[in-house]
Each structure stands twice: as C-alpha cells, then as structure tokens.
Amino acid sequence: MSTVNSLDGRVAVVTGASSGLGEATAELLAARGAKVAVLARRTDRLDGLVERVTAAGGTALALGVDVTDADSVHAAAARVQDELGTADLLFNNAGVMLAAQIGDVRADLWRRQVDVNISGLLNAVAAFVPQLRASAAERGVADLVNTSSIAAQNLFPTFEVYCGTKAFVTHYSRNLRAELGAQGVRVAVIEPGIVRTELQGHVTEPNAVEWLDETFKTLEVLEAADVAETVAHLAALPARVNLERVTIMPTAQAA
Ligand code: NDP
User: Fold this and answer.
1) For atom 23 of ligand 1, which residue has the closest CA?
2) Candidates 96, 203, 249: which one to mutate for ligand 1, based on the most atoms within 8 Å of Cβ?
3) How far is the CA of 16 from the centre of ligand 1 (A)?
4) In what order do the strands lie in the sheet with 245-248?
5) What's the pTM?
6) CATH assignment of 11-248, among 3.40.50.1820, 3.40.50.720, 3.30.470.20, 3.40.190.10
7) CA of 138 to the centre of ligand 1 (A)
8) In angstroms, what is the C-alpha Rg of the chain?
9) Which helix (H) or strand (E) is 128 found in, with range?
10) I want to staple 15 with a disulfide (CB 3.0 to 4.6 A). Which of 62, 94, 96, 138 is the partner?
11) What is the CB-side half-sphere exposure of residue 192 using CA atoms within 13 A?
C-alpha cells in the first residue's frame, strides 16, 4: 500500500502532541497530507511543532488545552471546525504515568492519572465525536484512536493505578467501537510496550525508577516514530477495515 500523501484532505486532532508519541504522530500525519490540530498544555512546544510542519509545507494549528478541562476541550473542537474543517481523525493520546508504593497513599498521584488518562480521554471523545460522526457520514469513515498501553493487560508493581486507567481505556474503546462502528466511526485502541519518551521522567518511586533504568539499559525499546507509523497506517486502511486493538511491542520485551 502506498503511504505517500495517503492522508490528503484529512483533518486530524492529536492530544498530548507536545512530546513523545503525540508529537511524532502529528508530524507524520501532517507529512502524509492531513491538516493537524495539536493539543497539549505546553504551547511553546506546540508552536515549535507548528513551525516545523509549516516549513515542510503542511498545515497545523496549535491549541493550548488541558484535557481535564472539558470546556477548554470543547472550545478547541469549535476552533478545529472553524479553522481546519470537520475533524475525521482523533488520536486521543494525552496521558501521564506515575508510580507509588500503596502504603505511601499518594492520592495526588492517583487523582492526576485518573483525571488525565480517563476523564481527559473522555472529554476529547465527547468534544470530537460529533465531528467524527459528521465526517463519517460525508466520506464513509472516520477514525478514533485511543492510546492505552500493555499496562492494560500486564502486572507492573507500583504502577497499579496507571495499569487500571489503561485497562479502562482498552475496555472502554472496545465498547465504544461497538456503538460507533455502525455509524462509520472506526475506533481503535493501541497498546504500546515501552517507548523512550518524557513519560518515564515523571516517575519518582525508587524501585520503579530502577526498573525503568534497567529496562532502557538492556532492551532496544520502541521509538515514538514506530507508534506514529502504526496510527498513520490505521487511518489509511480501506473504510471496511478496523484494527480494533493493536499491541506494539519492542521485539525483545517479554511483557
Ligand atoms: P510524553 O510524556 O512524552 O507525552 C505525554 C503528553 O500528554 C504530552 O504531550 C503532555 O503535554 C500531554 N498531557 C499530559 N497531561 C495533560 C493534560 N492535563 N492536558 C493535556 N495534555 C496533557 O509521553 P508519551 O508520548 O510516552 O505518552 C503518550 C501516551 O502514550 C500516554 O497516554 C501514555 O500513557 C502512552 N504510552 C506510553 C508508553 C511509553 O513507554 N512511553 C507505552 C504505552 C503507552 P503537556 O505536558 O504539554 O500538557
């Protein structure tokens, strides 16, 4: 299948686009021809991304948004509609990974993960599904890709809350697919194994930090670009094809 400009005419929205998987995916979608709205809190990073996309001949719109603020996500959806057109691809990807020993009772850490990974993801679904439905009605299919993790299926001590939020994302996505597929909105959930991004930099629990450091030393982990290729591939498939759950592992990572 040719991938050159395979997303011409598409209007894509990427949350968590200021670094890591979101940033790489936004750049690739733009390089393949999509107009891309990039959402995150760090607008300086988004502005840099827009500059690079524009310099490469693409179109991108930076929207400073905290996904936990539903009003702000809805306002962003209105700007996408007005300035780029009706969205037909949502890469719903913003997330945070934190770790704590259960005895430390870090309610601040679990609240942040539930707020961003679950409520933030739901806010984006609520704000953009009307546009995805309208696009699907017009062009035959639209894409909603949620970022989960292999943490949805596996056991990682001290990351219990993160694993729980990602289990939610996977099961929610599969149920959402059952509702939206009949309306032409193709829902997929991706479950990457370990990718070197800024995600791990927020982890402070010593055992978790040691485990992550050891993993990076001993494994050839994924790159953000590998996930970006997967998302671009999903979105370019024929309308009848829906890869509903895609697990992307570093070849050498067991679980
Ligand atoms: P990064 O830390 O590089 O990116 C996280 C992104 O989420 C940033 O752009 C950040 O932007 C954004 N974000 C965080 N909180 C908010 C918020 N409240 N509102 C808006 N945006 C927010 O990590 P990754 O790229 O690795 O993570 C992307 C997704 O991939 C996450 O859902 C993560 O759980 C998942 N994942 C990552 C894996 C890995 O090994 N890296 C493996 C499996 C899944 P900003 O701070 O500017 O708001």
Assistant:
1) 199
2) 96
3) 5
4) 59-64, 35-40, 11-15, 89-92, 142-147, 185-192, 245-248
5) 0.98
6) 3.40.50.720
7) 31
8) 17
9) helix 121-139
10) 94
11) 24
One-letter amino acid for residue 103 of the chain:
G
Which residue's CA lies nearest to atom 36 of ligand 1? Answer: 149
Residue type, 196: R
Mean pLDDT by 10 residues, the chain (255 residues): 75 98 98 98 98 98 98 98 98 98 92 98 99 97 98 96 98 98 98 97 97 96 98 98 98 90
Q: Which pair of structure tokens corresponds to residue 90?
A: 């949502």
Instruction: Please name every residue paired with 245 in a beta bridge, in sequence order, or none if there are none.
Output: 189
Q: Alpha carbon 212 to chain centroid distance?
A: 21
